[in-house]
Write a structure and sequence with these properties.
Distance between the termini: 70 Å
Largest sheet: 7 strands, antiparallel
Mean pLDDT: 87
Helix content: under 10%
Low-confidence stretches: 1-24
Radius of gyration: 21 Å
Order of helices and strands: HEEEEEEEEEEEEE
Shape: globular
Oligomer: single chain
Length: 193
């Protein structure tokens, strides 16, 4: 009888340890980049962003910080997730100068010379979701094609690719694939923060 209880307890403890010590998933082969019919421009107040060939319904928050003279473009998507409740996906391009130009992507924070892209997730109000890194930065871009600093209007286009580097121990499905291909166009009024 004691051997049976000991065996059951040992099995349960071993099972719990195995669940807790999960390895990160093995990277898959990179899928082909989707082809999207992205318009060259959209009307004022519109943005179109594609994620892996499908519309990403991110709400734009585009702003300029005069104290450090940096420009930011953020696209925020909020959705309900059956496993974790509210899930926030955030695509951002930061540390740009406020001027019309074509900017390469960078993976280190160099202020005011190029676009620093990032993608992140938040769930359960303050928990970090999957972690992604930029891939093939030389094939990506962030272009400001029109800028009116009096009316605070900006037009632009971007393209960036990310690869998941960690699930951060999250076992729930956060509904985001391993590879992310974003492409978008925007025409928005920006704010000053």
């Amino acid at each position: 009888m004691r051997k049976t209880i000991f065996s059951v307890v040992l099995t349960v403890v071993f099972s719990l340890l195995m669940l807790h010590c999960r390895k990160e998933p093995t990277p898959s082969v990179e899928p082909a980049e989707p082809i999207v019919n992205l318009p060259t421009e959209v009307n004022l107040g519109e943005s179109i962003v594609y994620l892996n060939g499908e519309v990403f319904d991110g709400v734009p928050d585009i702003y300029y910080r005069p104290f450090d003279q940096l420009f930011f473009a953020v696209f925020l998507q909020t959705k309900d997730n059956a496993d974790v409740g509210q899930l926030i996906n955030l695509l951002a391009f930061s540390f740009l100068p406020l001027r019309q130009d074509n900017y390469p992507l960078i993976t280190e924070r160099l202020y005011g010379i190029a676009a620093y892209p990032g993608f992140g997730q938040i769930f359960a109000e303050d928990l970090t979701g999957y972690t992604y890194e930029v891939r093939d930065k030389e094939k990506g871009y962030f272009n400001i094609t029109y800028l009116d600093t009096v009316e605070q209007v900006v037009k632009g286009q971007f393209k960036v690719k990310f690869h998941r580097t960690s699930t951060n121990g999250v076992t729930e499905d956060l509904q985001m694939p391993e590879w992310l291909f974003f492409e978008g166009v925007f025409h928005q009024k920006y704010t000053i923060k």
